[in-house]
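Blinded run. Sample ID left blank on purpose so nobody reads anything into the name before looking at the predicted structure. Input follows.
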Amino acid sequence: MRLAVYEANPSFNRSFIEPCLRAFGYRPVLEALLDYLKYGTNREKAGAARALYWAQLPLLLPSWYDRERPGLNQETFEQALQAFHEEVATAQQAFDQLWQELADLRTEIALALLKEFVENADLDVRRSILPQLALRPGQYSAEWEPLVLTTIRLARTHEDTYIRHRVELQLQAEDNP
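Blinded prediction complete.
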């Protein structure tokens, strides 16, 4: 996990997150990233926010194509396709169950991200957190809506061009799903 958090390139940290997800599961990985976000240095907080991108659901599916490719012809393709559809159905059930099991943790992470964005003026932390934020106030309980509105206001009036541009893109995307 430390390697994922300290990797500055948000594309490369995937190489460290996926093995952790496979080895330990989503809850321990998300809890570790939440700890970095809450208690880490600014560098660790920014890194944890970037790593959260790769630690989100959906489930990691087995690679049915790689498994079936060596003997793939029309008949085996049909069989492989059927196996794939069965895997997707099974994965969807597992996804739905895991989504419910992680609801508490997803909420805790979302609130920690909002608080950190508002309370921490570090540019890298804010730049790293902003893409992970849901900015539609209705997605939070009424008590947290003021924090969402404060986050939006801070981002819209921020001195950093990227943050101002990014918040507008996110707000536009959330208005037009």
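Unblinding after everyone has recorded impressions. The radius of gyration is 19 Å.
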